[in-house]
Structure formats: C-alpha cells, structure tokens
Write a structure and sequence with these properties.
The structure is a single chain. By secondary structure, the chain is α/β, with parallel strands linked by helices. The protein has four helices and five strands. 27% of the residues lie in helices and 27% in strands. It has a five-stranded mixed sheet with strand order 1-2-3-4-5. A hairpin with a 2-residue loop joins strand 3 and strand 4. The longest helix has 13 residues.
Length: 103
Amino acid sequence: MPQIIHIDIMCNECGNCESFCPYDSEPYHEKFTLFHTIEGFKSSKNQGFLILEQTDIKDITVKVRLGDKVVETSLTNQENKLPQDIAELIQLVYNEYRYILLV
C-alpha cells in the first residue's frame, strides 16, 4: 500500500524530490496523486484521485486513474471496482487528513 501521496496542488514538479530521493525514482510522477481540480486530473498522467462530491461523510464520489483506466464511482458503492487498498487510502485521506483537501 502506498505510504505517501503526492499532493498535486502543492507541487510544481521542479524535480527536487527526484534529486534528493534515496531511491532511483521520480516521486512526483510515481506516487499516488491527490488532485484538487478536474483540470489538474485531466492534464496529468499520474495515477491518483479527485474527490468530486461529498454528499455526507460516508458517501464520497471520486474519479480515480489507475494505469490507463479512469473510473468515477462512489466509495460506498459495492460495485466500485476499485482495489480495496486504493479505496481504503482515499477513505483514510478523507477521514483523517481532510485539511489537505482544503488547500
């Protein structure tokens, strides 16, 4: 399961994280991304999610890119077709770190 997410709105993709990363990687491209706008989601190729609608704390509609597939679904929908770890990560961000959604 991803241990950290990339927050799109807080990143200008300058490459510093790539330069200082102890691993051979580009974190701003490889980490699962939290998007804040539909424009940011559409203009990126990163895997990640965008919260579209929050009807209540238990029903969250999201747009998720995994590989080449984009899915729009409710997290409470039993047929959401998201891998369980991804759905749990999104739910965790929403429940425990909602302040980063307000950036």
